Amino acid sequence: MESINYWKNQxxxxxxxxxxxxxxxxxxxxxxxxxxxxxxxxxxxDLLVILAACYFHDFVSYPKNHPKRSQSSVDAAKESAxxxxxxxxxxxxxxxxxxxxxxxxxxANIATQxxxxxxxxxxxxxxxxxxxxxxxxxxxxxxxxxxxxxSEDPFAKNxxxxxxxxxxxxxxxxxxKLPGSMKTExxxxxxxxxxxxxxxxxxxxxxxx
Length: 209
Hints:
By secondary structure, this protein is mostly helical. 59% of the residues lie in helices and 0% in strands. The longest helix is centred in the C-terminal third of the chain and has 24 residues, at 185-208. The protein is globular and about 55 Å long. 37% of the residues are buried.
């Protein structure tokens, strides 16, 4: 069987030539998710399955405000399988890769059934936390045409959260819930650390407003 590096190079070559207009789900995102996943994986985990899922988990990614948003991961799994088969990817690993891709999504709410799926899910969710998560949150908010915050009630103390309208609302609506959703022990520890980056940012922001 070809090495991890062989397949990584194959995936990079293919994806680097594929148009991408979403800078939060581009090749650099896939690279970072793979790097995180490598750190979360244990010796018994199938790294080739994890690698493929990390690079193709957002092969189809509908915008946050798209009506089919929750279907992104299922469609990504289907489309990725076609590409991977054309590349000659091992057929006996295909179902495992598809499951990792389907189950990684927060909005799809598909339960993870394998260790590999847990690793990929944790790695992808980690990208929503910490310094990179902060940058991606505001980038996506800009794509959606959202405001930074509600000028009358920035931290939603007297209103319902609305993270489609206000970027800051996304912290409480989703991001601070992610550490508790992590499946791996290493993932939980790192997610808590990264969540503190966001928490400290909000404290700094409140002091400036």
